[in-house]
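hey so u asked for the seq, here:
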Amino acid sequence: MKQILFLLVAFFIFDASAQKTLNGVTLPAKVKANNQELVLNGGGIRKKAMFKVYVLGLYTPAKTKDAKAIINTNDDLMARLVITSSVVNSSNMSEAIIEGFEKSTNNNMAPLKSKIDAFIGAFKEEIKTGDVFDLVYSPSTGTKALKNGKLVTTVEGEAFKKALFGIWLGDNPIDTKVKSGILGLE
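ran it, structure tokens below
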């Protein structure tokens, strides 16, 4: 009985810090962002029509299933978005981002319009399968968008960060299965 209990405890300890593979994309268990170690909170696959267009991993200081707490925290956060379909291009990605911000802000994008426009600029270059976008928030610098490790843009402000992460974690997320996945509910 003690051996079974030990194995169960060991399994849950290992599982809590394990990497996750979705649609052929491995999300590391931990990342370093802004000189802070963040843990994989969860991951999800964004589907559009019949295509699996990207994998999203959410990294937080500590695991939580509370979407509102993640949106409202002023701690370092990171979303890793990995393109997994050749149907994704700059144009439809920009459209999808606008749709996400519309949902996240309840169609009140006006106060953040210039920041959203600057952010969309990160997706203007050609996008191909395997491209990795890291969206890294820090209270001191704002949200950095990196494409394949290269800084593309930085958008300041906590309000922008809330709207951005609200795309996936808000009350009206772009994809409810992605929300469940990044919260570790699936």
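The radius of gyration is 17 Å. The chain has six helices and nine strands.
lmk if thats what u needed
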